Amino acid sequence: MGIVEEAHNVKVLGSGERVIVLGHGFGTDQSVWKQLVPHLVDEHRVILYDNMGAGTTNPNYFDFNRYSTLEGFSYDLLAILEELQVESCVYVGHSVSAMVGAIASINRPDLFSKLIMLSGSPRYLNDADYNGGFEQEDLDQLFEAMRTNYKAWVSGFAPLCVGGDMDSVALQELSRTLFNMRPDIALSVTHTIFHSDMRQILRLVTAPTHIIQSRKDLAVPVVVSEYLHQHLGGDSIVEVLPTDGHLPHLSSPDILIPVILRHIRNDIAV
């Protein structure tokens, strides 16, 4: 195993010709895909990895300067694909990893035959004629809560993020992976995500993109999926799920998994 693979806990499962790469979002790790993976490995080669900063990675490897922008995470993704000698893949990115995949696909369009964006957003802050879902005051309060008492913040944030039953397995899973993160790293990554603005680069994304979004998502208003569809440079398609929460792969896998499998299998009809 190479240095990059070891740092990101890379796992390669299955043996199909088509390569599926799964990128997790903030506050989780590759375990968030555990209900999807069994449906993929019989026909595909599946690559799982942890974003630097996840609780499963070595915090000593986290470079606060490198990961002050999403480009740092995209360079990691490209390094993983290079080390594994991947020539082309379908990339499934949740939340921030949707944009990480978009950036990587601009730098190396040959490596990405398709992007599947789950709960992705190019910008979380509201702007003139743009509804990202948050005002700066909201984010200031969020950052202060994380700084003041990280455990209390997780206890309040996780239920809002997952939605639904307060005693759900999904909530327990998200709480577990959030608590695994070092608080200062979690705060730094949150700053990077919520202050990012990828709107100007969307037109440079030429890979066919399948946009999947919950109808009710605390972090990403449903109108954002239509914004992505209208501004991406390549062909795209949107599917809004009858689900609540930012992590439907945790909270509603029975609904999401057939949808993802269909989007992996089917290309966009032009």
Structure overview:
It is a single chain. The mean pLDDT is 95. The protein is globular. It is an alpha/beta fold. Strands 1-3-2-4-5-6-7 form a 7-stranded mixed β-sheet, sandwiched between helices. The chain has a single domain, classed as Rossmann fold (3-Layer(aba) Sandwich), CATH 3.40.50. It starts with a helix and ends in a 5-residue tail after the last helix. 40% of the residues lie in helices and 16% in strands. One of its GO terms (molecular function) is hydrolase activity. InterPro entries: AB_hydrolase_1, AB_hydrolase_fold. Belongs to the AB hydrolase superfamily. Keywords: Hydrolase. It comes from Rubroshorea leprosula.
Summarize the structure.
The protein is built from 10 helices and 7 strands. The protein is of the alpha/beta class and 270 residues long. The protein has one domain (3-265): Alpha/Beta hydrolase fold, catalytic domain (Rossmann fold), CATH 3.40.50.
Layout of helices and strands:
Layout lengths: L2 H5 L3 E3 L4 E6 L20 E5 L21 H14 L5 E6 L1 H12 L4 E7 L17 H13 L1 H13 L6 H12 L2 H12 L14 E8 L6 H9 L4 E9 L3 H4 L1 H13 L5
Parallel strand pairs: 2-3, 2-4, 4-5, 5-6, 6-7
Antiparallel strand pairs: 1-3
Helix pairs in contact: 2-3, 4-5, 4-7, 5-6
Total helix count? Answer: 10
CATH superfamily: Alpha/Beta hydrolase fold, catalytic domain
Return the CATH architecture. Answer: 3-Layer(aba) Sandwich
Identify the overall geometry: globular
Alpha-beta content class = alpha/beta
Poorly predicted tracts of residues: none
Q: How many angstroms separate the termini?
A: 41 Å
* pLDDT averaged over residues: 95
The domain tally reads 1
CATH topology, which one? Answer: Rossmann fold
Gyration radius from CA atoms, angstroms:
17 Å
Order of helices and strands: HEEEHEHEHHHHEHEHH
The biggest beta sheet, please?
7 strands, mixed
Family: Belongs to the AB hydrolase superfamily.
GO molecular function: hydrolase activity
Protein name: AB hydrolase-1 domain-containing protein
InterPro entries: AB_hydrolase_1, AB_hydrolase_fold
